[in-house]
Amino acid sequence: MRLLFEASAPVSARVERVRALIDDGWVLDAFLGGEEARSYVDVDHRPGIVGFQGHWWYRGEISAEPSPDGTTVTYRVYNIARRSAWAVPLANRLFIGYRRTVREAVNGLARTIESRLAP
Fold first, then answer.
1. How far are the Cα atoms of 11, 28, 60, 95, 117 from residue 53, in angstroms, in the given order?
2. How many angstroms separate the CA atoms of 11 and 64, rounded?
3. What integer pLDDT is reported at residue 20 of this predicted model?
4. Model confidence at 109, in pLDDT bands (50, 70, 90)?
5. Which of 55, 65, 77, 82 is the most exposed place for a label (fewest CB within 10 A)?
């Protein structure tokens, strides 16, 4: 498994509250766009981290760590391909703007989490 992309964003909430949203599945639904999208990926879960795999090469993980201002949410994209693994980084270089898209998705997720946790 090789890390291809990583993006993080701050969340103005305590890490325990953010991890609770990860642990109950809410964050994954918010990130993937609902329950229907889950039918296309395999999901695994460790406390405070949700992982999801799809297609022949892709694994994503969302985690939350404490930070001085609350929490940092991180999304990592891994290459899990066993065969033709050399093709994944090459193909990803052709996805112009993918790195920016990953950053924007994480920033959007962070704002969505804050909205969910707002009083």
1. 25, 12, 6, 19, 27
2. 9
3. 95
4. very high
5. 82
